[in-house]
Automatic annotation (TrEMBL), chain A:
GO terms for molecular function: ATP binding; ATP hydrolysis activity. It is found in: Cell inner membrane. The keyword Acetylation does not apply. This is Peptide/nickel transport system ATP-binding protein. GO terms for cellular component: plasma membrane. It comes from Gellertiella hungarica. It is a peripheral membrane protein. Residues 4-253 form the ABC transporter domain. SMART domains: AAA. Pfam families: ABC_tran (PF00005).
Automatic annotation (TrEMBL), chain B:
The keyword Glycoprotein does not apply. Keywords: Cell membrane, Membrane, Transmembrane, Transmembrane helix, Transport. It is a multi-pass membrane protein. It holds the Pfam family BPD_transp_1_N. It comes from the Bacteria. This is Peptide/nickel transport system permease protein. It comes from Gellertiella hungarica. Belongs to the binding-protein-dependent transport system permease family. One of its GO terms (molecular function) is dipeptide transmembrane transporter activity.
Amino acid sequence: MALLEVENLKVRFPSESGMVEVVKGVSFSLGQERLGIVGESGSGKSMTGRALLGLIPKPGVVTADRMQFDGIDLTRLNERAFRRLRGARLSMILQDPKFSLNPVMTIGEQIGEALAFHGRMSAREQKQRVLKMLEAVRITDPERVYRLYPHEVSGGMGQRVMIAMMAVLEPDLMIADEPTSALDVSVRGQVLEILDDLVQRTGMGLIMISHDLNMVARWCDRILVMFNGRVVETCAAGKLGEATHPYTRGLLASLPRLDETRQTLPVLDRQSLGGL
Amino acid sequence: MTQKGSGRLLPAWAKTAIGFVLSLALTGLGLLAITFFIGRVVPIDPVLAVVGDRAPPAVYEAAKERMGLNDPLILQFVHYVAGILRGDFGLSVSTQRPVMEDIARYFPATLEMATLGILIGVVIGVPLGALAAARQGSIIDQVIRVIGLAGYAIPAFWLGLVGLVLFYAQLKWVAGPGRIDIFLDGMVPPVTGLLLVDSLIAGDFESFTNAFSHIILPATILGFFSLAYIARMTRSFMLDQLGQEFIITARVKGVPARVIIWRHAFRPIRVQLITVIGLSYAALLEGSVMVETVFSWPGIGNYLTTALLNADMNAVLGGTLVIGAVFIAINKISDALYRILDPRAR
């Protein structure tokens, strides 16, 4: 059985000119694999991820014919039940540790908090688990980092802290929403390696939301291409080059290459895609 | 070389302490200079206040000479500062007592009322503001916004009069104007000058309840104004924090809403709130003239107004200095709390 099955997921927000649909009926399923969701800004990829966690802010409306996670019907969960699921079984890594970590709480306190609201354990046990998790994301001096505040660590280390915080309860499904976009190129690889490590070790399913086609193609098993709130293409990562949809082809064509021979870099011809 | 040497001579905390004292002294001197020179420039003749406007010119001149007003302005200032350093603020023309003594009598009355007022404002205003932010757009939010607006729009003297008519004259829930009933006045030996505290020290519960019944209405009215301001500011600070990414992070972790509001959104705004509360407290300490007048409260606001109307410049300068000093003290305390509460400011 698939870990996650989504059918006809829609996310709508009311506006002055009626309901605006930002996700227009997305369907996919996920096993214990790495699924990449790519698309440009505003394509609905982040909203899809947040809808899965029940994090669409009011007055947004989420509907789906089916949204099932490991036998649990997510469409019927109330906030309380969702809260029990979040952090423990479903988790999400956010984009920029500069904003996604609480500035006035120590790193140890923030990771420990994830443990504190799911099951009881002693303060000492909690600290031990946090320290072990910090080690798992390759932080060399966990005792010191435990006591630091977010502004005292670098972006790369901040993002590793974020991963530690979201993975400390070994969730079954992790959503990574642009986990490397805010980082220096030099530390991106390292963060991906740590994520890779986690997936291999714990066997969790992973949804990687990104606009970086190359990274997703290299790193994921399967790819969904989203455009304008819809999935326009689904394919195995290795076969991205054989994609047929005009939007995907357009995206691929506009990627710059090191051995560039073209005079001008083509841009997407949105006119021809307008009907979507 | 010398710089390095002196750096080693003094430990870091001593440098901080010296810097603190220096900045305090400079601010104090600036305050003194400004109040002194404004006091001398205004077209009020302190000599007339002493000798009256029918004194013969010879008496007038003699008084002026005696008061040192024929000296150059800068020399007068030096004398004034020297006097203040000795704790001598000069004599009040209208009360015929040293200004220092007057302030020691009147200031505690204001301090007591303002402190009770700010306590009411903080204890009710902060949770109200946080609640309004947590339930943005709800009925509670609307009510709190109206309260906030009322705090701006309603004049203090009007609220004071209405309060007196309703709670004192009609309902008889509280005592009327003044600090304490006349038959209890002067019964409590002054220790701090705060009647509520002194009566407790003396174990005189009759005086305590009587004083409390006098102070509660004006303090609540002052409290209402600071409550309105504090609630409004808390609400907007909280809304700002609740829109931050780390709130989403906390929700992803499965943190309950109550904890998100108080731990994640409220903790970062404590620093901003301290500034707001400090300003509000200072405003109550200096600006309660209206309420003090309506309630015949023998406080510093009343004292200053009377002094000003009588051209009693020593009293005006002394009172202004005390209020200025309180302002500086509150600012310094806010700064210190800032450093304790915000890890980024350490």
